[in-house]
Amino acid sequence: MRLKVIIPVVLLSVSAGVLAFNNNKLGHNDDPPGRYEVIMNLVGQMLKEGHYQPKQIDDAFSKEVFDKYVRSLDAEKKFFLRTDINKLTPLSTHIDDELKGAPLDCFRSINALIKQRVTEAASIYPEILSKPFDFTAEEKVVLDPEKVDWPADETARKEAWRKVLKYRTLEKLTDLQEIRDKDKKDSAGAKVKTDAELEVEARTKVKQLYDRYFERLKNRQNDNDRFNMYVNAITTTMDPHTDYFPPDEKRAFEEQMAGKFFGIGAQLKEEGDKIKVVSIVTGSPSWKQGLLKVNDVIQKVSQGNAEPVDITGYAVEDAVKLIRGKKGSPVKLTVKSVDGTVKDITIVRDEIVLDETFAKSAIINGQHKIGYIYLPEFYNDFNDRNGARSADDVAKEVAKLKAEKVEGIILDLRFNGGGSLQDVVQMAGLFIPEGPVVQVRSRGGDAVVLRDRDRNVQYDGPLAIMVNEYSASASEIMAAAMQDYKRAVIIGSSQTFGKGTVQRLFNLDDFYPVKDGGSLGALKLTQQKFYRANGGSTQLKGVSSDVILPDPYYEVAERKDSDALAWDEIPRASFTPWINPVNAESLRKNSEKRMAVSPAFKLLNENLATLKRLEKQETYSLNLQTYKAEQKSNTAALKKYDAVNDKVKELNIVNMKADLERLGSDSSKLARNKDWIRIRTKDIYLDEAVNVMDDLIVQSLPKMQRKADEHR
After folding, report:
1. What tens digit of pLDDT does each residue of 23-42 get?
2. What pLDDT is stored for residue 305 in this prediction?
3. Of 465, 400, 406, residue with least CA distance to 431
4. Are 361 and 346 members of one domain?
């Protein structure tokens, strides 16, 4: 019987980025819509009525979604056949109709077919790996799926699998041969495995790898998972940052923003097909109870008295989703200890704070005493009035550094993907007097200027901000504001990520309550666009650094996504530049001179050129001797990069006394802090940022004092 879907009567209005629904819900009759249909209806209407700049949801939109979804299910083109794609293509114009209430024929047809093809592939790889490969034959494999078509038939698909499996075995075989040859030198007289024996071992290892891969497909890709991917193919075709979150991912997103979650306080890792406990967080529920131990293997997870779920073969992130939950709720773990005993442990979940999410500072001693603040994201616990807020935390770090009488501060926003808009506005206000920080425009509306209204400046000394291509959203607002005011020097990539849009999270349950108490998930919807104080958008173009450092991270920015919104600009806001503006040009020239003669940066640039050359390689040899020759050449080229850190002077970076006292005697926290300091002592980018800051400190001194320093 065909489902008769009742289209919800939902009225939406956008005002200053707020999406409002009236109280009408999806109607009910004798044949109500299923969960998938309800989600599709709601998502379709929210995209159309609430998105900042909605695309026309028509056949062309549907075709783009279809291509994206099929590729997400079979990224390497090893499951579907060309005949499958041809058979499904007539349904590629159906997705816009499904969003308006039509039966989900496209999704269900693709879903049924991918399950069949995955089952077939699961029997292909063991058969191929049961026989030795001939590595003397001259043949090649293409690994980039963009360079190959779907297999024409089952024979072509099996051949595609054979070549990939042969390549993976070749990788393992050469690794094993290297280990054998090294051991042969180190332990003369010991029995040495033959190449034939190593080939068997290599195939065994590859089979284990694919056993786990298909086990994960079975565990992770059920109908619900594939439907979630389907909806996300729709939302991300509207723009890359509009996402559908099923319930567990919605919770994870909110936990990330808050910097805390409710769980048991055990750090886990994958070891083969097992989930093993690596450490126990001091003060956590696991620590207080005392039964769960390091190196225990978690075999099963159950919610209270519910049927346990066997997590053998699970990825860590999937196991974590089961173990986390509501505060005060019990989770039962079936655990195998090191001594072989198996037991059930019930632990009541409680709040776990992620210290690594929060702002952290240190002091770098050298030519000048420099404060360093690392901010991994612009976090804000919106659900807890007393929760952590990044703007408040950075203000505290600035106060601590000022008390230490630092001569300049470096704010590190590398790999910071953004977060709370409220916090970035407040944080910018720490460094400038009253004035506009960012302009935000909603769909069909005028731009609203978000300003710092506090005329006080917490820190008025030399300021540098480090960014890279992964710095996005709120990070770009912060860097752009400081650049527009000429308040700070921006150091890093030629361009930051280029995410100039604002999203808001909507619970779908608020619009259509589920009777059985389940959840429909949430939609993170793009509703606004950022503009700098100078009027230019950060969308697509990002922020251009004042001092550009060679960036090893490429092909990740917004401009690489064909569904990204376009760049534009609006009128400039009225603001007064910093009273002692940064002379970015002189800082850039000094940095370029240093990098031109720096052995470390010379090696880094050579390595980047090698990586980009290797990335263009389209075919790979399946002949053992040819492969070894190629690998030897590539390894020699890349090995030069190992010497880069050796040529970087070691920074004298230390914790403040108050921070060390806060860590106390917690061994796991002390170890993590030691690693945090260690990786920064030999950081080529931080090293050059310190050099730039040294120049900026001198530049910021009064002219008479600079002359006196030069004569010393």
Report:
1. 333 433 334 568 999 999 99
2. 76
3. 465
4. no
- Residue 200 in 3-state DSSP? helix
Residue 665: pLDDT band with limits 50, 70, 90: confident
Q: Is the pLDDT of residue 352 over 90?
A: no
Residue 187 has pLDDT above 50, yes or no: yes
- Domain range for 268 is 260-353
CATH number for 349: 2.30.42.10
pTM (2 decimals)?
0.81
Using CA atoms, how far apart are residues 19 and 442, in angstroms rounded to an integer? Answer: 11
For residues 507 and 522, the answer to whether their CB atoms sit within 8 Å is yes
Looking at the fold, whether 384 and 337 belong to one and the same domain comes out as: no
| DSSP SS3 for 440 | strand
Same domain, 186 and 316: no
Closest CA to 80 of 113, 40, 47: 113
Residue 679 CB-density burial (10 A; 0-12 exposed, 13-18 middle, 19+ buried)? exposed
Query: What's the one-letter identity of residue 451?
Result: R
Hey, is 657 helix, strand or coil?
helix
Q: d(Cα 345, Cα 515) in Å, to the nearest integer? A: 32
Tell me the percentage of the chain whose pLDDT exceeds 70: 89
Q: How confident is the model at residue 317 (pLDDT cuts 50, 70, 90)?
A: confident
Q: Mean pLDDT over residues 556-573, rounded?
A: 93
Residues 583 and 434 in one domain: yes
- The answer to whether residues 561 and 604 belong to one domain is no
The reply to whether 509 falls in a domain is no
Higher local confidence (pLDDT), 187 or 168? 168
Nearest to 317 by CA among 256, 379, 227: 256
Q: How far apart are CA 268 and CA 620, in angstroms?
A: 36
Co-location of 408 and 554 in the same domain: yes
Per DSSP bridges, beta strands 350-353 and 260-263 are antiparallel
190-194, 251-255, 360-364, 512-516: the lowest-pLDDT one: 251-255
Give the residue ranges of DSSP H helices in 187-328. 195-220, 223-238, 247-258, 285-289, 316-323
Tell me the two tokens of residue 345: 């442990």
Q: Are strands 18-21 and 12-15 parallel, antiparallel or unpaired?
A: antiparallel
Is the residue at 420 inside a domain? yes
Identify the helix (H) or strand (E) that includes residue 506.
strand 501-507
State mean pLDDT over 461-474: 96
> Is 409 a domain residue?
yes
CA torsion, points 507, 510, 515, 518, in degrees to nearest 10?
20
- What CATH number is attached to the domain comprising 668? 3.90.226.10
- The helix or strand, by DSSP H or E, that contains position 262, with its residue range, turns out to be strand 260-263
Residue 397 vs residues 406, 514, 612, 685: alpha-carbon distances, Å: 12, 45, 39, 22
Q: What is the mean pLDDT of residues 304-310?
A: 82
H-type helices in 598-642, by residue range? 599-615, 624-639
Out of 353, 378, 402, a domain closes at 353
Domains identified in the chain, total number: 5
Last residue of a domain, one of 330, 353, 376: 353
Spatial distance between the Cα atoms of 157 and 165, rounded to a whole number of angstroms: 12
**Token pair for residue 392?**
């408040």
Non-local CB neighbours of 138 within 8 Å, separated by 6+ positions:
621, 623, 626
| H helix intervals, 429-576 | 474-484
Residue 451 lies in a domain: yes
Same domain assignment for residues 565 and 627: no
| pLDDT tens digits for range 91-113 | 999 999 999 999 999 999 999 99
Assign 33 to helix, strand or coil.
Answer: coil
**Together in a domain, 93 and 176:** no
Q: Whole-number mean pLDDT of the chain? A: 87
